[in-house]
Amino acid sequence: MHKAIVHSLPSLKMARLHRDAKTFYDEIKITSFLKRYAKGKHYYIYTHGCQANHRDSEHYAGILTKIGFKKTEDINQADLVLINTCAVRENAENKALGEIGNLKGFKAKKHLTLIVTGCMVMEEKLTNEILKTYPQVDILLGTDDIVHLPNALEEHLKTHNRIVEIHSDVFNIHERLPSLRASKFKAFVNITYGCDNFCTYCIVPYTRGRQRSRDMKDILAECKALVKAGYQEITLLGQNVDSYGLDLKRKIRFATLLDEVAKLDMPRLSFLTSHPHDFSLDIIKVMKRHKNIMPYLHLPVQAGDDRILKIMGRKYTSKEYLNIIKAVKTAMPKIAISTDIIVGFPNETEAQFRNTLKLVKAAKYDSAFTFIYSPRSGTPAAKMKDNVSYQDKVKRFKQLNELLKQQMSKNNESLINHVFPVLVDDVSKTNKTMLTGRLANNKIVNFKGNKKLVGQIVKVKINEEHIYFLMGSLVK
Ligand code: 5AD
Ligand code: SF4
After folding, report:
1. Are 166 and 140 in contact (CB under 8 A)?
2. CB of 87 closer than 6 A to ligand 1?
3. Is the full-model pTM beyond 0.85?
4. What is the dihedral of CA 387, 391, 393, 399, to 10 degrees?
5. Ligand 2: which residues within 6 Å by Cβ?
6. How far apart are CA 5 and CA 8, in angstroms?
7. Distance of alpha carbon 135 from alpha carbon 3, whole angstroms
8. What does the pLDDT read at residue 77?
9. In this structure, are strands 419-427 and 367-372 parallel, antiparallel, or unpaired?
């Protein structure tokens, strides 16, 4: 086995300490060695997890393209495979480990460089496991080590050693990373990196570092270029968009940023993710002011019981949360609201779970991402003793989803027979004559149409509701 050249190893503890991030504006340089190597070669990327990871993969794709690799959708054709991992729950990690495992046999048959990056490698336990039991992995890069890809690749190709470049000691902002966007009409734009909230169950602040806000002028320049290139929809991204700017010298609040971006006049503008503790009604004022801001709000509640919310470190009560929903719906009656909910947090009682059901009934969500609590080693909640059986957690999970389905279906019914603008996303995977798109409130609608319409905003009449999607017909 080749030896591992360790430039830097991860540390969950260290990641929570680093505060003074710098912004770098230098361009990535590619050596002629790498350019020669990449000629005629292909890369393949697996991406797990949230939009932040998907955006990072676009940067990896950008750098690999700049080196000279071509993208392939067929793993058999790949000379370089990059797995961008997620650590938010155990099953996400198992999926990535499965992929790494599967590539072992593949690598025995052909020469392939295997790179593993993303949140999972930021955990020392997982990186040690990969180094010990997965010799097929050639390069390990941390969440803030995208810039190191060319150097790490060159060092690996020249020495055949395994290269480890995972920094938990510094987290910065890199403004000039090359980028190959996955879509020609929908774009994600980071406004912050990392998170300062430290919800007790969550690994993100340790894997992505403390919050760093991008300078407003850099965000506006990126959005302006996207509008010029004809993008139909921009989503501003942050783990907690409402705390944008709090770490900047010149304090700017998210409502101001949103207002400035909306003025650039793209057809659709959205943002993810809002935090009930930091959400301000100024944001709703800005949403109302601009027709292009989508009437959609993702506002994770996580739980409906005040004691559980407190132990989770969420810093709001169920009443405060419902007051926000009320204010939002009063200002924008047609808005769709989605949420994230965790069931089975350590020692959650049946009565506490029922408080979550009660809140869900009151909030009348349009959609929800629901999860069974997954202990993340290194977080405070993982140290708590838990007296709830996994069986009970699954039972609660099913019960919660039954309730959500009823609500979603009821909300959807109010859309039937109405006509809405729809941004066409793609041709249906199962039926080539069908298109799939999204209403401005983010609901999915499927309808018959020509694939030429992909990327355009068309008018669709809603005919049926199927809980997770709607069926409609194109209006000429
Ligand atoms: N277990 C289960 N779900 C989690 N989430 C974050 N950490 C955990 C965990 N340890 C969920 C939260 C968050 C979403 C992205 O993932 O609901 O909002
Ligand atoms: Fe995790 Fe809480 Fe930050 Fe969201 S706000 S990323 S749940 S720590």
Report:
1. yes
2. no
3. yes
4. -140
5. 195, 197-199, 202, 204-205, 239-240, 275
6. 9
7. 10
8. 95
9. unpaired
